[in-house]
Design a protein that fits this description.
mainly alpha; single chain; 6 helices; globular
């Protein structure tokens, strides 16, 4: 008689049990060689650019307003190139790194403005006839005044203080352009006083931005316009 062989009983349990998973987040100690994630991120360079712009604008505006003698202009050119120009330009380019296109364009453009102004006054202004010197400088100021006006249109999603600052920047550039074009010392002086106020607004925005980074909260009102 044939023998019936029973198939082995199969178990549906997995041969290897996976290790139990815990949903508790792992704790990483900020020991040497393993810094916390925050230290590996890029900081906001906007306060640096604002301070660079404010310092140079203030120095030149004090001369334009007649509070300092025009013979002190060389020191403004040095600071304008290194601080208002190179430093602001680099800070502006780094704004693109953190995804801030508006401030990247703003700071890079006016950082380049200070570099260009330095090179013009230091090397190329002598090639312009004396009778056209004011017109040449006015041409440059008008061109960047148009740039400021374009950026003003794009600033209405930033903050009220920023809009105020760019509005005053636009007006200051055109007033100084008019003063240089017409050789009007009174108009240039008015532009100087406007520049002093503009520098104060830039210092205010710098303090507001770096203060928020330091204290983790808004310490100065700027009037945010973008919807959160």
């Amino acid at each position: 008689m044939a023998t019936i062989v029973q198939p082995p009983v199969q178990s549906w349990e997995p041969a290897v049990q996976p290790p139990a998973q815990s949903w508790e987040p792992a704790t990483v100690s900020p020991v040497a060689g393993n810094p916390p994630a925050a230290s590996q991120t890029w900081g906001n360079t906007a306060p640096l650019a604002l301070v660079a712009f404010a310092v140079t604008t203030l120095m030149l505006s004090l001369i334009n307003a007649g509070l300092f003698n025009a013979a002190t202009l060389p020191v403004v050119l040095g600071v304008g190139f290194a601080v208002g120009g190179v430093t602001q330009l680099i800070a502006g380019l780094l704004q693109f790194r953190i995804g801030d296109t508006f401030h990247g364009v703003l700071f890079s453009t006016f950082g380049a403005f200070w570099v260009a102004l330095y090179y013009y006054l230091q090397f190329y202004s002598k090639e312009v006839p004396a009778a056209q010197a004011g017109h040449a400088l006015a041409l440059m100021l008008i061109a960047f005044g148009v740039v400021a006006a374009v950026l003003l249109v794009a600033s209405f999603r930033t903050s009220l203080v920023t809009v105020l600052g760019i509005s005053l920047l636009t007006a200051t550039l055109f007033v100084l352009a008019a003063g240089n074009y017409s050789a009007s010392a009174t108009t240039v002086q008015a532009g100087g006083w406007m520049g002093i106020v503009l520098a104060g607004i830039a210092f205010y925005l710098a303090l507001a931005t770096v203060g928020q980074a330091s204290y983790g909260r808004e310490i100065l009102w700027v009037g945010h316009l973008a919807k959160k």
